[in-house]
Amino acid sequence: MATPGTDYSRIVAIFIVPAVLVAAIAILCGFFAGAATQTIVRSALIQLIVVVGLYIYSGNSGIMSFGQTSFMAIGAYAAALLTVPVMQKHFLWPDFPGAGQFLLDVQLHPAVAAIIAGLFAAVIAAIVGYPLMKMNGFQASIATLALLIVINVVIANWKSVTHGTSTIIGVPPIATMWNTLFVAEAAILIAFLYQISGRGLRLRAVREDPYAASSIGISIAFERIFAFAISAFVVGIAGAMYAFSNPFSVDTFYLTLTFYTIAVLVIGGQASLWGAVLGTTVVSLFTQFTRQAEAGISIGAFNFAMPVGTTEVALGIAMLLILILRPSGISGGHEATWPWLAWAKWRGRNAAAEPTPAAATATTRAGNGDG
Amino acid sequence: MNVVISYLIDAISLGSLDALIALGIGVVFGLMGLVNFAYGDVITLGAYVLFAAIGVFALSFGISVVLMIVVAVGIALLMERVAFRPVRHADPTTMLITSFALSYTIQNLEILTVGARAKFVALPSFFSDYITLGPLQIPNLSLFVIAMTAILLVGLMTFLKRTSLGIQMQAAAADFAMARLLGVKTNRVIAAAFAISGVFAAAASFALVAQLGQVNPSLGLLPVLIGFAGVIIGGLGSLAGATLGGFALGFLTIVLQAVLPTSLSPFRDAVLFTLVIAFLLVRPQGLLPGRTTVERA
User: Fold this and answer.
1) pTM (predicted TM-score)
2) What is the pLDDT of residues A99-121, one digit of tens each?
3) Could you give the ipTM of this predicted complex?
4) Which residue, A66, A12, A70, A35, is CA-closest to A253?
5) Which residues of B touch A (CB under 8 A)?
């Protein structure tokens, strides 16, 4: 870490730039938009936490996981069990299994409940991750899809604890745009700290070359399980935030949400934190626009409405186009840099089109000067 | 005894259906390493064609079925051309995600155009009748599915063993680079694999519609997940494995239905997919492994 010549400013930018972007959008909406917009921003922020959570594992390991949504489900159910008022609990869970009866007599502060929900998801992830992480990349991806199905079936049928496919009610709706923003920033910070830590770097080494990485003594399985558990922790907390903002049922956390999350990460670029944040921002703005269009846009005297479902079709097509034309996503797998550096680089690239020595030196100087 | 025989017929029939679906996935995977999630949507679209032909345009049953097969094959080929050919050289996970995106797009297009509500399809009463053999009542549909699967399996075997294109496909599945050097045309063999998967999808689609009497945008979802499990259990990249895996799943489903206590029977799919994970872990090559690792040209 403390190698001489490390450009700390550039490392810090990996966190600050996305964090500021997210905060700026939320604060703008917070001060200038109405309650309805704030609810939309809150949903987008919860989605951001899930995408960042998925990125922690899939981005750093290079293995796509289809199973992260099930940790969101686990987090949501755990948070519900911990926060529904005691009086309602006995009424809502009459057949709760004997060993867990004590849970019916506790009601925790939502923040504590969210953290416990995240930890619970992380523990489950570490346990199921143990066999999964011994597989190679493609098999592990398929196994996570199988895991998603298994957990969905278990939740849908373990009626005494989960109410089967019915909607869970009674969870205190305490999530606001502001506290969700706080959690989202924390998720970005966790992702950032993980990826610059020794652990994160080791997992990235495995992603780039598993043979070389294991030859210098990196335990592939362990690094993957560790990232899988951190990812599940963040996603589990996203599940808790979801529970604090919407009624949910088991099908909330199934293939549609899994697809949406993966689509957002792939569109943004799965190999970088910037990709996760940029993807969520772009896709959220885009879906917001198309949802408005579905509701109807008035242009002069004409009222023009797109059929409901256009959003989903457009999202699917956008993802296909990205996969075919630019598989590394909008971010191209690059991390965020300070805007002035990005600007200088962009100018430098344009100048490089007509290669003159003067232009080249100028951009180098600009690049160093501001760093 | 009668109970055992009727369970056995159920198992063979369900196993046949699962094998059909698994083969449609397996034939493409063996050649290009793609687990085609959108295969379920070929099944769904085939069912919609049947619905439109019989229910809306009132075409005769025979013409409707032919139309359904033609459209299913056409859609499978179109998918290959539009979505999968550009990502053919990507890693298997990217291809899997591509098929996911394709599936999501198609399902939402269906919701957009036809609607999410189920459409009812009326087939000739033959498919809902029973034949009575002494004390046994056997649904015609079960026998039909078993016969259809047998015919398709024999047809596929003949195609692979006796025709030039079939032999080229086998060669390409064994070693794509070498096959290409010997003059096998990549696009042709891959298109052939998709066409075959289209035929199997149409067959599976017909069986599903006959069973359920209706079609909705997620008709193909559960079948494709089951077929996908069958392919992994049987052996990714091996057609014999996919067939065996499909039958194994069908039998397992019926056995679990018969053996599991009623309170646990809803967990059947959880057991099946835990088995998938176990297979990936302990025997990733499946029951009958494919000959080589996957290589694409």
Assistant:
1) 0.88
2) 778 888 888 999 999 999 999 99
3) 0.85
4) A70
5) 35, 83, 86-87, 90-94, 96-98, 100-102, 104-106, 108-109, 111-112, 221, 225, 228-229, 232, 266-267, 269-270, 273-274, 276-277, 280-281, 284
